[in-house]
Design brief:
Layout: H1 6-16, E1 21-24, H2 31-34, E2 44-52, E3 58-64, H3 71-78, E4 85-86, H4 89-96, E5 116-121, H5 122-125, E6 129-132, E7 139-144, H6 145-154, E8 160-162, H7 176-188
Parallel strand pairs: 2-6, 3-5, 5-8
Antiparallel strand pairs: 1-7, 2-3, 2-4, 6-7
Helix pairs in contact: 6-7
C-alpha cells in the first residue's frame, strides 16, 4: 500500500473533526533551518527521533525542537532493550512512509502494522499549539495537543506521554487520558 499523502492526512484529520492548519514553505531538513518559520507559524515546533532498541523495537520520540534528550539512558525510561540507535532511512520508509527530514507523528497513519510506539514528551504536551510536518518537509501543520492525541489513537498508536526531555522533569505531565478529556470538552463546548 502506498504511503499516505498530505492530502490523505488532511482528509483523515477532517473525518475525525480535528482542526488543523498548514503553511507551505521551502523544504527544511533540520531544526535550525525551520527556525525561520517561527514568525509565520506560532506554537511549539518539534524534533522527532526515530529510534530502535537492540531487539528491533521501534520508537518515535517527539519533543520540542529545543528539548535536551539524554539518549544514553532513554531506553531505561521507555523500557527498551539496550541502548537506542537511530533507525535507518530504509526502515523509516518501510514503517512510517516518510523520508529523513520529514519525520512526524503524523507518519503513524502509515504504520498500519503498529510497529512503532509513539512517545510524546511531557514538556511539549504542556503546550496547547503544536507543529509538525504533514508527511513532507515542505509544510508545517498546526494542531492542538488534544487533536494530536486523538489522531494517534485513531491510527492505533495511543501515545505514551513521558518526561523524555530534561525540561519535562520539571513540567507538569499531561496524560493521554487528560488530553482526550480536554478534546471531548472542546468538541462539545
Amino acid at each position: 500500500m502506498p504511503a499516505a499523502s498530505p492530502d490523505d492526512l488532511f482528509a483523515f484529520l477532517d473525518n475525525l473533526g480535528i482542526a488543523h492548519q498548514t503553511v507551505w514553505h521551502a523544504a527544511v531538513f533540520t531544526v535550525e533551518e525551520s527556525r525561520g518559520l517561527h514568525s509565520r507559524v506560532p506554537g511549539i515546533h518539534s524534533k522527532n527521533l526515530f529510534l530502535r532498541d537492540k531487539k528491533g523495537t521501534l520508537f518515535l520520540v517527539v519533543a520540542s525542537e529545543d528539548a535536551a534528550i539524554e539518549l544514553k539512558s532513554l531506553h531505561r525510561l521507555l523500557g527498551g532493550s539496550g541502548r537506542f540507535s537511530f533507525g535507518s532511512a530504509e526502515l523509516m520508509r518501510e514503517t512510517l512512509g516518510v523520508e529523513p527530514g520529514s519525520v512526524t507523528p503524523f507518519a503513524a497513519i502509515n504504520d498500519t502494522a503498529h510497529r512503532v510506539t509513539v512517545v510524546l514528551d511531557a514538556a511539549m504536551m504542556a503546550h496547547e499549539v503544536l507543529n509538525f510536518h504533514p508527511l513532507t518537509n515542505t509544510g508545517t501543520t498546526t494542531i492542538s495537543r488534544q487533536g494530536l492525541v486523538s489522531f494517534l489513537e485513531a491510527t492505533g498508536h495511543p501515545p505514551r506521554i513521558e518526561p523524555v526531555s530534561i525540561e519535562a522533569v520539571s513540567a507538569e505531565p499531561v496524560s493521554a487520558e487528560a488530553a482526550a478529556e480536554d478534546a471531548e470538552e472542546a468538541s462539545s463546548g
